[in-house]
Specification:
single chain; mainly alpha; 2 domains; 7 helices; 0% strand; elongated
């Protein structure tokens, strides 16, 4: 390798540095080559002294400032069978005593709100239909003032329809969020049992 090839490779290996720092390192390397030529030393000796362009000491110092070290991945070993059985028992007890009650209760509340939303939407539809078809609905208790004014009847029906639809949609989104949380919790339990 000659001086110019070495300097070209060194310049390419310094691409992570700023232009000012790269210029400083390149000037230092050129100065070392010039000193060697003046002293009559061979270029190969200077290259051996500096090292390969990617491993030279001139490159290492500035790169240490700008490059963060790679995190070392820790190797984990799977749990032994006896340890897995003990973890399963502990998680079973924990999930049964502490997690299961709030889990079932929360899903029950969501299901109740969803069914209430559907019932509100159906009652709104029936109120609007009763106003259009002009027949009284005996199983829905509507105040007489609402029945006597069609505007109030339609607005009440559409309000109940909209409220029921919004409540149903809201419970669907909350149910989806809780479903994702439940899935992640189940995956976490499996990860704890396996040990990795």
């Amino acid at each position: 390798m000659d001086k110019y090839t070495y300097l070209h490779e060194l310049n390419q290996s310094l691409s992570a540095l700023t232009a000012e720092e790269r210029s400083h390192v390149m000037k230092d390397a050129e100065a070392k080559f010039d000193q060697a030529e003046e002293a009559g030393r061979p270029i190969s000796e200077v290259i051996d002294e500096l090292g390969l362009p990617k491993s030279t000491s001139l490159v290492k110092e500035p790169q240490r400032i700008y490059k963060t070290p790679e995190p070392v991945a820790q190797r984990t070993t799977p749990n032994q069978p006896i340890t897995m059985i003990l973890i399963i028992i502990a998680l079973l007890l924990f999930n049964t005593i502490i997690v299961l009650g709030p889990f079932v209760g929360t899903w029950g509340i969501i299901l109740g709100f969803f069914i209430s939303g559907i019932a509100l939407a159906i009652s709104g539809i029936l109120i609007v239909l009763s106003g259009i078809l002009a027949f009284p609905i005996s199983f829905i208790s509507i105040p007489l003032i609402v029945m006597s004014h069609p505007v109030l009847l339609f607005s009440t029906g559409f309000f109940l329809l909209g409220l029921g639809g919004l409540l149903s949609l809201l419970t669907i989104y909350i149910g989806r969020f809780l479903g994702i949380l439940s899935y992640r919790y189940a995956k976490w339990n499996i990860k704890v049992i396996r040990g990795y």
